Amino acid sequence: MDIKDFKAGTYVPQFQYKSFLPTKINQEWVVSDPQINKLLEEANLKLGELNAFSLIVPDVDLFIKMHIVKEATTSSRIEGTQTHIEEAVLKEKDVTTEKKDDWREVQNYIAALNDAIENLSNLPLSSRLITQIHKILLQSVRGKNKLPGEYRTSQNWIGGATIKDATFIPPHYQDVPELLSDLENFTNNNNIYVPHLIKIAITHYQFETIHPFLDGNGRVGRLLITLYLVANKLLAKPTLYLSDFLEKHRQLYYDNLTVVRTKNDLTQWIKFFLSAVIETAQNGIDTFQKILKLRNEIEDKRIVTLGRKLPMAKNVINYLYKNPLIQVSYVVDELKISKQTANTIINDFVRLGILKEVTGLKKNRMYLFEEYVELFKK
Q1: CB-based contacts of 131: which residues, under 8 Å, 6+ apart?
Q2: Which CATH class is domain 288-377?
Q3: For residue 251, how many other CB atoms are within 10 A of its CB?
Q4: In the beta sheet, which residues pair with residue 2?
Q5: Contact (Cβ atoms closer than 8 angstroms) between residue 113 and residue 219
Q6: Overall pTM surpassing 0.85 (yes/no)
Q7: pLDDT digits over 57-106, tens only?
Q8: Residue 313 parent element (H or E)
Q9: Hey, what's the torsion of the CAs at 26, 198, 249, 81, to 10 degrees?
Q10: CA neighbours closer than 13 Å in the CB half-sphere of residue 210
Q11: If you ran DSSP here, which 8-state letter would residue 12 be given?
Q12: Regarding the domain delimited by 34-286, which CATH topology (the fold level of the hierarchy) does it fall under?
């Protein structure tokens, strides 16, 4: 089917409302729109450039954690969670009571992504993987009573105080298993010739339209984008996350999904999606370049001045790449060194402008690797 001829689905009468039954997607797709083809070419090029950093940057896994933390905080923020990057890397004991629920939601997102990446080696993108992601996301947080790890068995809706004034009513729960089976078959179908980025754009739209869970659909749907790219080896590491772009253009994101359902305009959604990939990949490339520049500056010019303390300094800086907000106790526990040694090296890092004390307290001081964190906030 040519994307321009797509028919999104039909409205099915239920008791006192109509639910939307989407068209199944497991088929060959043709792209005849020259604009899409041009965007697709650019997106693939940018994705390749971003992936190159995963392959050439020494110890790249040191920096992947912060990419994941940024994605977790941003994706959760779209759903109303208010946790910032600095807070997300704290240990639970150091999180204030009023922020603990939001912190846990972000930690669940990080855990869900890490678990899914690990499982991709022996599992396809499947219902089993999707429900496991969902179960981890909703563990002991808001939504914990909304069937974590299970597809819905009742009607849900989007927008509106009740189903009567909803802006969108997803398919009836009885249609969900068949629709998800079709989605899973499409995602893993190697017998059809559909460019990967077109495939994941359609998959994301369809997943959000099915809305198979009572809560957490947006977060799961956004996670699937990154997981698809890793599973299909477009990325060697999970380095592309669209949540930052989608949060900045949140209303456009919702509008473009809605236009598919109301006007059958799949073309506009795909253009928006590819534009998101292009901009996000370029931002990822820029971030990696700045990380390398900062790393060279710190390791080749600053900590080399520490003489015999250099091996310890390198261990601390490597820890900071993954955990840029620390206390003395964090360093003691992580590196198995004395409190005095940890204090000394942290004071050295403050003097060298690597760490900044951010509490103003005399006890339980926190130190931020501010230059590094700022690279993920821009």
Answers
A1: 149, 150, 151
A2: mainly alpha
A3: 7
A4: 30
A5: no
A6: yes
A7: 878 888 888 889 888 888 888 877 778 888 888 888 888 888 888 889 99
A8: helix 310-322
A9: 50
A10: 28
A11: E
A12: Fic-like fold (1.10.3290)
